[in-house]
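Example record used in the benchmark description.
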Amino acid sequence: MSKIITICLDDNKYELFQKFALMDNREISNFMETATTRYIEEISYVDEFEMIEINSNQELNDSLNNARNDIKNNRRRIVD
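Model output (structure tokens):
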């Protein structure tokens, strides 16, 4: 179910959001939801260059594999 939120925008920001919403043929609320979702997706995922760097870092991959094996073999502890 959809939730309703209220935000305060100064006139300049409101007009900017409204302008971009109209250019995209959307209601301002839909534009803001879409723009926010895209932003979250963009900062949440690793791009291809970061993935290449991660995959080529042997020390990091060895450490991750060791950690995975420790967890699989129940060699772990919770640190508070």
